[in-house]
Amino acid sequence: MSTSQVVVTGTLKPDGTLELDEKPNLPPGRVQVMLQAVPEQARDGWWETLQQIWKDQEARGYKGRTLEEMQADEAAQRAEDEEYEERWRQIHAQTMNPLPPKGTP
C-alpha cells in the first residue's frame, strides 16, 4: 500500500475548521493533517496594483473607453444635471412670489 502526500494551502477559521484553497488530489478516506502557519506576503502598493490590473486587462484584450465616449458621457451627465437644477430653480422661483390675497379667484 503506497502512501500519497500532497501539500495544499488553506485558511484556518476561528472555529477550528479548515478551508482549503483547492481540492486535494487524494482518494477519499482518512488523512493526517499537519498545520504550519504561512507568513503573510507583503502586499504591493497602489501603483503596483494598478499596473497589474492594466497588464491583466491587456492580456484579456480589454479595450477601455475612448476619449470621445468619455466626453459624450460627461456632456450627457452635465445636461442631465442642468435640467435637474433648472427644475429646482423653477420650484424655488414659485416660492419667492407672494400668495394671492384671500378671496381672489
Task: Give the SSE map.
Elements: E1 10-12, E2 18-20, H1 46-60, H2 67-96
Antiparallel strand pairs: 1-2
Molecular structure report:
With 105 residues, this protein is mainly alpha-helical. The protein has a domain at 66-96. 43% of the residues lie in helices and 6% in strands. The protein has two helices and two strands. Strands 1-2 form a two-stranded antiparallel ribbon. It is elongated, with a radius of gyration of 32 Å. The N and C termini lie far apart (103 Å).
Structure described in brief:
The chain is 43% helix and 6% strand. It is mostly helical and 105 residues long.
Helix percentage: 40-55%
- In N-to-C order, the SSE pattern is EEHH
List the quaternary state of the chains. Answer: single chain
Intertermini distance:
103 Å
Q: What is the tally of helical segments?
A: 2
Mean pLDDT: 87
* Residue runs with pLDDT of under 50 for 5 or more positions: none
The radius of gyration is 32 Å
Largest sheet descriptor: 2 strands, antiparallel
Shape: elongated
What is the SS-derived class?
mainly alpha
Number of strands: 2
The largest beta-sheet arranges its strands as: 1-2
Kindly estimate the percentage of residues that lie in beta strands according to DSSP. 5-15%
